[in-house]
Amino acid sequence: xxxxxxxxxxxxxxxxxxxxxxxxxLPYLSYLSFVGIGVALIYLLKTFRRxxxxxxxxxxxWLISGLMVISxxxxxxxxxxxxxxxxxxxxxxxxxxxxYLLRGAERLEQLAFGMVIAAIxxxxxxxxxxxxxxxxxxxxxxxxxxxxxxxxRPHAGRALVTFDHPNxxxxxxxxxxxxxxxxxxxHSLRRSxxxxxxxxxxxxxxxPGWLYGGTFINLLGIFCSGSRNGLLVAVSQLVLFGLVTQxxxxxxxxxxxxASRAIVWGGLVGLVGIGAGVTALGxxxxxxxxxxxxxxxxxxxxxxxxxxxxxxxxxxxGLGNYKFLYPSRIVGLNLQETYVGHxxxxxxxxxxxxxxxxALAFSFWVGYLCFRGVRALILQQIPPSDRAILLxxxxxFWGCVxxxxxxxxxxxxxxxxxxxxxxxxxxxxxxxxxxxxSSNMMNEDQN
Length: 447
Prior knowledge:
This protein is an all-alpha fold. The chain is built from 21 helices and no strands. Helix 4 (55-73) packs antiparallel against helix 19.
C-alpha cells in the first residue's frame, strides 16, 4: 500500500520537472517547449482523470466552453470559429489540471524564480537586437549577413529576439517584472524571519543580486521592445509595489525597510532611465509615448468591433471572424491597413466574435478568481511570505490583463500558457487558504 503512493510521488516529481523545464525554456525553444508541458498534462489527465477545481470554477469553465461552441455553430465562418477553439480549450484543460503540480506556495516561488532568472539572457539579447537594428550602426557592419538578416526583420527599430512581434516580447517581460517584484518582497520577509529560501532555483541563486538584477533588467528589455503598452504596464506595476511596500500596515503584507528601498529606488531608477531613453531615442521609432495612437487606426478598429457587437449581440460572428469582416467595414475610409486580425482588445474581441454573454461570463469568471486572491491578501488568510508570492502572481496577471486592453496576446501560445499558469497559481494559493480556513472553522465548531 505504501509503494503505490511513493511511486505516484516520484512520477509527479518527474513530470513536474518536465513541466518546469518547458516553462523556463518558452522564450528560447518556442513551441518545442510545449513537448515537456504537453507530456506533463497528458500524464495528469491519464493519472487523475478529474480536476481539483471547485464546482464554481469547474462549471464556469464548462459554461464558457459551451458558449464558444454554440457561437461557432452560428458563425460567419464556422471552420475558422472551430479552429480558433484551439486557442482556448487546450488551455482550459491545462488550467484545470495544473493544481496537481502547483500545490503550495513554495512550488510557485520556485517556478517564479526560475522564470525570472532564465529570462536574464533574453533581456541581454533584446538589448543586442535593439542596438543592431539602430539607424546609427555603421554601414560596413550593416552588410554583415547576420546583422543584415536581423535588420531585415519586421518592426524596424524594435527588439523581437525570439518572438514574432515586439509587443509579444514586452507582454512576456511585464509578467516577469511582476513575479520578480513579488519575489523581492518574499525574499526580504524570509531574510528578516531567518527562514531559508525555497529549494531549487531560489536556493541556488539565493544571492539578492540575482533576484534584483533579474527583476529590474526586464525594464531594459521592455524599453528595447518599443512597446508603449509594455512601458505603461511596467510603470503601473512599479507604482503598485511602491505603494504596497511603503504604506501597507504591519498586519498586512509589508516588506522590510531594505526591500522597500530596493523596490522604490529600483523603480525610480528604471523610470528615470525609461524617461531618458524615450526622450533621447523615442519608442521603437516613435518620438513620444502617447502620439500616433490614433494614426494607427486603433479607434477605428475598436469602433468596428462595437458595431459588429451591436449587430449580433448574443452569439457574435464567430471566434476569429473579425478579420473576415474588417475589409468590408473600412470601404470609403482613408486607412492604410486593409487586414487586421483582431480588434486589439480582448474583451471587444470576445464580445463581437463570441457574443456579449460569452464576454461577460469570461470576465466574471476570471474576475472572481482574481477577487478571491485580493481578498486573501486583505484578510491575511495565508502567511506573509506566501502573501508576497500571491501579490507577485496577481501583479504579473495584471500585466496580462492590462496588455489585453490594447492587444490580444493569446494568439502567441507561449503567452497563453504563461497567463493560465499565473491564474492557476492564484487559484491554488487561494484554494489552499480556503481549505485551511474551512478546516479551522470546523475545528472551532467541534470545540
